[in-house]
Structure formats: structure tokens, C-alpha cells
Design goal:
about 170 residues, mainly beta, Neuraminidase, 13 strands, repeat
């Protein structure tokens, strides 16, 4: 069981044997890894977003692309540290894979490469449209939340043909 009163580092990886997404938590004090229950999603490696809401003791696994296919999904799984289990919350309004995401003001914000964005309010349990990101379309992007905003930048992709652009 993961305690809400202690900081943990969570790591997600695909198990090559089961071909399932796996989550582990590192207890920095004991330096032990704890295996969490299996993540209930069948999305392709790297196609989903993960966002933590530490104040709620929750981790969200958002969207992605179906394993073995190219169809984006809107599903959202949530891990609760209080119950050490996974559940489902309302799916996104638009199916997305390979999106940028982060926590802003206790809410989950996702942005896709076309500039569209939406916000999940965990208190209300629903998604709503967000202001479009604006700027040029970006691919293979990364995101960071700071100062009440989600910053999206184009990530690096091999081969390095050009420098990343910010949005």
C-alpha cells in the first residue's frame, strides 16, 4: 500500500512478457520499489499521457492509441493511493493519442497537436473544452505545468532535422 503522507516516485513501463502497462512506486526512504496493481488499459507504448494529482493521491492514465492499431481512445483510468486500486472516470470529449498533459490548479489539462485542449475537473467528474493552445501545430511534444499554465513545446525526434519549437 502506498501512503499518502510520504512522497513517492511513480514509474510506468511496458512489461515485455505480458505486453501490459505496469506501474511501480519508489519509496525514497526505504529505497524499495513497490509494484502497483495492473493498469487497466490496452494502449500502445508511449501513446498515452500520465498526470498526477498529488493533493488527491491520484494518477490518471489518459487516452492513447489501441495496442496493435492506430485508433485513438478517449478512456481515462485513475489510480487511487487510498485504495491501492484503479478505476475509470469520464472519458475525454475527443479521443486522443500522443498528447501533452499536465496538472493545472488541481485539474487535468490535455492538449493535442492540432491545438485543441480540454480540462478534467476531478470534483465534477467531467471534461470541458479549454481555450485552444494557439500557435503552429507541434509533433512529439512535451509539457510542463507552472504558474497556473500548461506549457507545451515540441519535443526532439530522431533524426534531429530541426530544433524544437515552443507553443
Amino acid at each position: 500500500m502506498v501512503s499518502l503522507s510520504l512522497p513517492f516516485l511513480f514509474a510506468f513501463a511496458f512489461d515485455p512478457v505480458s505486453r501490459r502497462l505496469q506501474c511501480q512506486a519508489l519509496d525514497p526512504f526505504s529505497r524499495r520499489w513497490l509494484l502497483l496493481p495492473p493498469v487497466p488499459c490496452g494502449t500502445a507504448a508511449g501513446s498515452f499521457a500520465v498526470v498526477g494529482l498529488p493533493a488527491r493521491g491520484e494518477i490518471y492514465v489518459i487516452g492513447g492509441v489501441e495496442e496493435g492499431g492506430d485508433k485513438a481512445v478517449s478512456s481515462v483510468a485513475v489510480y487511487s493511493a487510498a485504495t491501492n486500486g484503479w478505476g475509470q472516470v469520464a472519458g475525454m470529449r475527443t479521443a486522443r493519442g500522443y498528447m501533452a498533459a499536465g496538472e493545472v490548479g488541481g485539474r487535468v489539462v490535455v492538449a493535442s497537436e492540432d491545438g485543441e485542449a480540454e480540462v478534467f475537473d476531478p470534483e465534477a467528474g467531467r471534461w470541458s473544452p479549454a481555450a485552444p493552445r494557439g500557435g503552429a501545430a507541434v509533433a512529439r511534444y512535451d509539457a510542463a505545468a507552472a504558474g497556473g499554465k500548461l506549457y507545451v513545446t515540441e519535443g526532439w525526434a530522431w533524426p534531429f532535422e530541426r530544433a524544437p519549437r515552443g507553443a
